[in-house]
Amino acid sequence: MSDEGPPLLFVALWGAFTLLMLAGQMHLIDRGAHIALSYQLYESADPISMAALD
């Protein structure tokens, strides 16, 4: 077994966290939340949340 790269547990935990965050983001979008990515900002009177994972 090679010691190159990050530990498998770290990769698995980070992957699970990422999937949960994406599922939460999709849930918010389905409920009508206005979420913008960093390159989609525009002037608006409505509040906008920034997507954490892009």
Structural description of this entry:
It is a single chain. The chain has one helix at 8-30; strands at residues 35-36, 49-50. With 54 residues, the chain is mainly α. It has a two-stranded parallel sheet.
Write the layout of secondary structure elements.
Blueprint: H1 8-30, E1 35-36, E2 49-50
Parallel strand pairs: 1-2
What structural keywords apply?
54 residues; mainly alpha; two-stranded parallel ribbon; 1 helix; elongated
Radius of gyration (CA) equals: 16 Å
Beta-strand segment tally? 2
Strand line-up in the sheet with most strands: 1-2
The biggest beta sheet reads: 2 strands, parallel
Low-confidence stretches: none
Order of helices and strands: HEE
The average pLDDT value, as a whole number, equals 77
- Strand proportion, as a percent range, falls in 5-15%
How many helices? The count is 1
Helix amount: 40-55%
Morphology: elongated
- Secondary structure class reads mainly alpha
N-to-C CA distance: 33 Å
Gist?
With 54 residues, the chain is mostly helical.
